Amino acid sequence: xxxLAPLNEDNGRFLLLAALIAAYLSAGAxxxxxxxxxxxxxxxxxxxxxxxxxxxxxxxxxxELRAFLRSYEAAMAAGIxxxxxxxxxxxxxxxxxxxxxxxxxxxxxxxPATVAGKVFLIIYGLFGCAGTILFFNLFLERIISLLAFIxxxxxxxxxxxxxxxxxxxxxxxxxxxxxxxxxxxPSVYHVMLILGIFAVTLACCASAMYTAVExxxxxxxxxxxxxxxxxxxxxxxxxxxNAAYQxxxxxxxxxxxxxxxxxxxxxxxxxxxxIVIKQVLNWVLKKFECRCCPKCHKSSARLGRRNAITPGAxxxxxxxxxxxxxxxxxxxxxxxxxxxxxxxxxxMASNKVSLAILQKQLSETANGYPRNVxxxxxxxxxxxGVGALAIMNNRLAETSDSR
Length: 403
Known about the structure:
This protein is mainly alpha-helical. Among the domains are: about 5-80, no CATH class; about 140-160 and about 185-290, Helix Hairpins (Orthogonal Bundle). Helix content is about 65%, strand content about 0%. The chain contains 14 helices and no strands. It has helices at about 10-55, 60-75, 90-100, 115-160, 190-215, 220-230, 250-285, 295-305, 315-325, 330-340, 345-350, 355-365, 370-375, 390-395. The longest helix has about 50 residues, at about 10-55. It is globular. Pfam families: Ion_trans_2. It comes from Rhinopomastus cyanomelas (Common scimitarbill). Keywords: Cell membrane, Ion channel, Ion transport, Membrane, Metal-binding, Potassium, Potassium channel, Potassium transport, Transmembrane, Transmembrane helix, Transport, Voltage-gated channel. It catalyses: K(+)(in) = K(+)(out).
């Protein structure tokens, strides 16, 4: 009989993450139920009391009153309000709607009512959402490159002050930034901190604008910014919906810029946080590693992925790489035994490729890995990951051995 293959690292990480997400959802549901359920019950009790009082005072039967309220709810769903609101389907309103569709915000305050509009939305959203996700990935690539360039300049300045670099040391061309990025990658934690500070600053500035223009309190404005920037889009608060504003054109432009920059920044921050979560999962898996069987432990240590970085592993990276290189006679054998897409030698060689070439190949393949590396491997190009996670793996220090 064939023995079942042991659970590999990727599957173990996936199952552990699924279990943690289920626990996270259960905990969140428990907290929100405890916080919001009493308020909901009290509101329902007040509404029933008001309904019966209104029916008794004005001598209107409850069925007739409920039928009228159903008509009012249908009018609200169609976008009709008692107070004067801006037209929903003029060109600015329709542009606002398609922006919330392709960015997956989906406030829900405007929805197509015709069959033709619903059919067109399905086709329009299919390509629009795909293109917007690609735009977010390319934005992520460029913001990481920009942060890497700035952090590299600060790193070189620090080394020059400490005397580790000669005073006449010059970086590469300023246009391409190639020379300043070869052989050095920013820390994922530093990038997460910078993106977090930028996101908080952006949300605070946008909240100040919404508080002044929309009349919301500051906490509601911050809540709206997070719900919108994270593309949750509940729709309980929606900006730019009144019939007229003071300096309306300037406000609409500022609202568009804040939402665009906020969504891009939060998307990038979410992807950086996902890398940190993955590192924590690797650390948890290592803690759960089988230690009672020396044979399994030895096999796991020899065949494990060498580029899986866990917290605290950076100090042991140099010794591990030297031990790993000594175990294999050739790159082919090492690549076959480790199960990696590329060998350490190929990975080190790929880091010498200029950043300009990397950006071109990333935009062509949208998977974050240089084409020359993928061609030299025996596995398909999707083995190393696709999209934002692959971009982060290729650009940040804690997710590769090429620092």
